[in-house]
Amino acid sequence: MMVQITNWQEYRRDGEQFLHTALMARKKNKKHFTPEILYNLTGMAIEKLIMAYLMKNGDLAENHTMGDLLTALERHAGSQPELAEKLRYLDSFQEICDLEAYSVRIPTQEDTEVILAIGQKISDFLAPHLTN
Asked: How high is the pLDDT of residue 36?
């Protein structure tokens, strides 16, 4: 029997809010929302949404890299090659787990469009699974 982890709805709400903020900032061309900020907002949105899905299914990710979130997601949703490719792309901007090989690549304006589309794709994929 699966036991939901309480407050998963808060993670869903937070994820939706982060993504909404990023999408609206881009749509309104808010100059203070740099590509790096939009990347981080979208990354936090994806993390919160996947964590909500996992918590609803009584599970947690081992870590919070996009790869680790994908591994945990696929335990419940099966193989997701298209999402895997997109999450690996997001992970390519920050390699922060290894202190000796630490690297960060700042997204460009063009990257921003792809990043936001990935956030929306993850949200759309998870939405049917994140209902009360």
From this structure: 94
- The strand ranges marked E within 5-124 are 94-95, 103-104
Give me the chain's average pLDDT, please.
92
* Residue-wise pLDDT tens digits, 15-24: 999 999 999 9
- The whole-model pTM stands at 0.92
Long-range contacts of 54-58 (CB under 8 A, 24+ apart): 54/5, 55/4, 55/5, 55/6, 55/7, 55/8, 55/11, 56/4, 56/5, 56/8, 56/129, 56/130, 57/2, 57/4, 58/2, 58/3, 58/4, 58/5
Four-point Cα dihedral 45, 94, 64, 37, nearest 10: -20
Q: What are phi and psi of 59, to 5 degrees?
A: -135, 165
